[in-house]
Amino acid sequence: MITVPTPVLRTLSWAMLVAAGSLSIAALADIAPVRPLLASALACGTATIVLRHAIRARDLRMIETALDAMAEGRLPARFERPQGGQAFRVSRALGRAQRDVSTTISRLTVERDELQAILEALGNGLIALDREQRIRSANRIAEQLLGLTGDYRGRLLQQVTRQPDLSRFVSEALAANGHLSAEIRLEGIENLVMQAASEPLPGGDGRIDGLLVVLDDITRLKRLESMRTDFAANVSHELRTPITNIKGYVETLQQIGYDDPPQIGHFIEIIHRNTRRLSMLVEDLLSLASLEQVDARTGLEFEDLELSPVLAAVQGELGDAARAKQVELSVSCSPGIHAFANGTLIHQAVTNLVSNAIKYSPTGSCVEVTGRLAGEVVEIEVVDNGPGIPAKHLPRIFERFYRVDKARSRELGGTGLGLALVKHIALAHGGAVDAQSVVGKGSRFTIRLPLADTGKSLLLGDS
Prior knowledge:
With 463 residues, the chain is an alpha+beta fold. Helix content is 55%, strand content 18%. It is built from 13 helices and twelve strands. α2 (34-71) packs parallel to α3 and α9 (307-324) runs parallel beside α10. The protein is elongated.
């Protein structure tokens, strides 16, 4: 299509109108030859005016189309610009506005992506709410903690998650002008403890427009605090019992004198038993403290250890205890199975497991110890036919001083640290330990250690 400049159209239209006026005067003077020219001139002038207004309307439609594109976010919106006049200047300004808006949107997009990356890397749950407690946005951590799925934005917090503590906290925070900090619990498969904090989101009129809630998972910290408190209480109790016994019998000896040798011998035996228990407790505490050190591996001597002789030594050491209780102790291990390990610690770990199995096994039962290869690891398995361990206790049995049956454990002479030592010995070797049990049928404990070559590269690489 040929585009005619607006000034040319303006001049042409005025010329046609002047010509039409002159011819009109001539027509009024009844000049016959002029009448056909008059009709032609009027037709041309009218067509020029119509064309001019048509072009103006087209320019306005192009500008309107460009503005609609900008409103819909389609940038840059390309359009055919007018060739001159006011419409051209408007379209040129519109083009500059398009470029500025496009640049601004690009910059804001980059900043938004950077902010989103920072919020995701924080490790805390963040959730933004309006004054009616509708969710504006949430980061990935908050979605996981609260189980937010689907299109939850714009919905009430109470509609998308059933967390009474969180709902109560949000209501109290809004009533307190946004500033609040409290410890709350999130209910679920595993109850989580959260340190919740809130900050107000200001609105345009200076009022609080919403709330930003930060959720910090302190479940592990609370568990560690509880374990530390329990440990201090348990150590005090475990130490106090033998010390109290020793002190009591020594004072009794001082009071009754030395005229009754059989009674004195009985008291001395009790004192000796409590002293031995106290010594075992202190030794276990020192061993556990040593294994829990960050650099525990660097202080240990590892070697290419064949497993079969270690298990045979444990059988020889505990064979008398098994026979005394009429429990069969069976050991099975193929020769040639090697692990990169500390022989003394592995012997101690297996001894603890086998000793426990013998203590808790009924008369006439069997304790089976098996060493074998299982893929890329060496497994040492201890199976008994004892009373078993309830499922609720299994996750905690490797904690220090944790006992399933406290009274019976003390009666059998345990310190409550044996399984904790087994766990940390396995971890010091780059391995692991787990337990499986069925009440009334027995328990199965399995230590897993890396093979000799794998363990050597793992442990020496870490050091």
